[in-house]
Amino acid sequence: MEGMELAWLETAAFLSWVVKDFSWVLLIPETAWVAWGCAVIFESWDIHRHWKIEDPYALAGRFVLLLWVLGNGVWMSSELLYEKPGRNIHFPWFHGALLEPDSYTDFALKIFVAVVWSLALVLGFGAQILGRRNSSAAAKQRLNTDLWCVVWVLKDCFWLLQMPWPAISCSVVILYCLIDLRDTSAEPSTLTAAFIAWLCANTVWLVGEQLLADATVVPRVFACIFLCFSMVMCIKNFMETHDVTERINILPKN
Fold first, then answer.
1. What DSSP line would sit under the chain, residue for residue?
2. Does 252 map to a domain?
3. Which domain, by its residues, includes 7?
4. Is-above-0.85 flag for pTM?
5. Which residue in 153, 150, 136, 143 sits closest to 181, CA to CA?
6. 121 domain-assigned
């Protein structure tokens, strides 16, 4: 029962991430910030629930997720508040930066993001290296399962620094991590599909923004399609987890 509650919590955090990205792609600040807040709360709650039941290296992976979402939200806020979207990116609900464009504040916030993500990378790769020394097979599998998020932080660092090709290369590595390194035997296939769709959305969005200079909204539209699919898979996983929990609850207790 405890394991199912933790799985539900992790799925809730992931769904919040996807909704945040969906809102960011479409430049909807209100839902983007609400979803970001939910993601921070769920990731923090997840750390609290795992605090006494996981080894420090696995716990480090959860701190990487929290640092990642904190930096990601600050980056998103910086763009929504102080940056004008490309002149070809038009949505009826968004007409430009919410505040007066301020390159100094925008730059300072991105420096803050870079520092937070640098800490996440040191923590993540440090846990990956140190945790593999004299670890059990189960512990190494857990580290393999967590590797994707460390590489994703690296991808976002390259994106922040406007280095699209290294970022796209990281996307390829992340895909390998999601398909080959994660312990998919213990994870619903719907959740794996949701992760892959989320990665596809981010990569398409990256290409449209960095390589095509936001010349058209088409990449953002395709990114939203992938994100919608990811959300559907998350919700389906929620329903499946809820059904299993209900079946356990009605079993007679010995």
1. -HHHHHHHHHHHHHHHHHHHHHHHHTT-HHHHHHHHHHHHHHHHHHHHHHTTTS-HHHHHHHHHHHHHHHHHHHHHHHHHHH-PPPTT--BTTB-S-SS---HHHHHHHHHHHHHHHHHHHHHHHHHHHHHTTT--HHHHHHHHHHHHHHHHHHHHHHHHTT-HHHHHHHHHHHHHIIIIIS-GGGS-HHHHHHHHHHHHHHHHHHIIIIISTT--SHHHHHHHHHHHHHHHHHHHHHHHHHHHHHHHHTSPP-
2. no
3. 2-247
4. yes
5. 143
6. yes
**CA distances, 202 to each of 11, 24, 58, 137 (Å):** 18, 11, 25, 32
pLDDT for the residue numbered 228:
97
Distance between CA 16 and CA 26 in Å, rounded?
Answer: 16
In a domain, 254, yes or no: no
* 20-77 confidence digits (pLDDT tens): 999 999 999 999 999 999 999 999 998 988 787 678 888 898 999 999 999 999 999 9
Domain count, the chain: 1
pLDDT in tens, 185-234: 556 678 889 999 999 999 999 999 999 999 999 999 999 999 999 999 99
Residue position matching structure tokens 């998020």: 149
169 falls within a domain: yes
